[in-house]
Amino acid sequence: MVATSIRCDLRCVRGTRLFTVFCGVKMSGRALRTFVLLLLLVGTSFGGHGYETEEFLKREYSLTKPYQGVGSPGFSHWDLMGTAVMTTDFIRLTPDVQSMQGAVWSRIPCYLRDWELRVHFRIHGHGKKNLIGDGLALWYTKERMQSGPVFGNMDLFTGLGVFVDTYPNEEKQHERIFPYVSAMVGNGSVKYDHERDGRPTELGGCTAVLRNLNHDTFLSIRYLRRRLTVTIDVDGKQEWRDCLDVPGVRLPLGYYFGASSVTGDLSDNHDLISLKLYQLTVRDDTQGRDEQDEDVTLPSVDSMEQQRVEIQEEAMSTITLFFTLLFSLVGCFLLAVVGLLLYSRWRESSRKRFY
């Protein structure tokens, strides 16, 4: 009988969804290769709310080195936009130069109901303290390849945005320490408030000291059973730290993943090293399946009444108002003339009939 010794150290950090396994195994070469293959293909973890899940890397939605053909039609699943450039080690969304906008967008809409996006990124530059900006954003939205004021993407977006904001626009910041990570769900009529750093529509957030670090920085966005959780690993300890946890988030299928960045009067290098998307499958799941299968047509959050923005028509300019009044007066004059002519003819016709 072949002796087999197995030594395993299992560490599960509750609430952070970090589940690491270290095993020293003595077994046959064939069994070892099979075991390693299974570890690579399937990862098993426990969600922060009791779900035992299996995760599968979806390469068609992932962006990893060596970024072969990124931005080239027919050779990649990803498009580059604006100032984004590809190198051998990263995709630089914006350089440390003022007034830059860059983005990378998936070409394939995602139809996974439960997923996790793990982002490896780096923000660095020559600026000191608050003389840096503006940050980057991760997206799961109906629209793609649209430039705009929200970290390089359009305002009034439809879907999910997760923001890594490095510059405080609001003058009086009593609660937040920047850089700050937050999330927002938009339904196409909700504006992102730049002057208040997105506070009115924020689902939650946390401080993340992540600039100019010598170690890797990561962010994870998990959408499981209509629950959105964001965790970060920016301390160099290889441990996920909770950032926000919001139940009742409803995101439609068929949206696009993307990442964007912008600089203004202040700047930073915003580098994207990898985006890895995992499909999540809940083991032995029978509860809530009917609700999960319910179609969602518009993004929403059960616990948050979204603020709708009424798009008002622009006020008329002086010239437009002048011509509007002029044409109105001319129209009234013509109607009066026509009315008088008709009345005169009627009077004349009446006299002829009388005599």
TrEMBL record:
GO cellular component terms attached to this protein's record: COPII-coated ER to Golgi transport vesicle; endoplasmic reticulum membrane; endoplasmic reticulum-Golgi intermediate compartment; Golgi membrane
Gene3D superfamilies attached here? 2.60.120.200
What InterPro entries has UniProt attached to this entry? ConA-like_dom_sf, Intracellular_Lectin-GPT, Lectin_leg
Localization terms from the record? Endomembrane system; Golgi apparatus membrane
Topological category with respect to the lipid bilayer:
Single-pass type I membrane protein; Single-pass membrane protein
Q: Which GO terms describe its molecular function?
A: D-mannose binding; metal ion binding
Pfam families membership:
Lectin_leg-like
State the UniProt keywords alphabetically: Disulfide bond, Glycoprotein, Golgi apparatus, Lectin, Membrane, Metal-binding, Signal, Transmembrane, Transmembrane helix
* Start and end residues of each L-type lectin-like domain: 55-280
Task: List where the protein spans the membrane.
Answer: 321-343
Where it mainly occurs, coarsely classed, is: membrane
Has keyword Transcription?
no
Superkingdom of the organism of origin = Eukaryota
List, in alphabetical order, the GO biological process terms annotated in this UniProt record.
Answer: endoplasmic reticulum to Golgi vesicle-mediated transport
Q: Which PANTHER family match?
A: VESICULAR MANNOSE-BINDING LECTIN, VIP36-LIKE PROTEIN
Q: What is this protein called?
A: Lectin, mannose-binding 2-like b
Which organism is this entry from? Scleropages formosus (Asian bonytongue)
UniProt lists the gene as LMAN2L
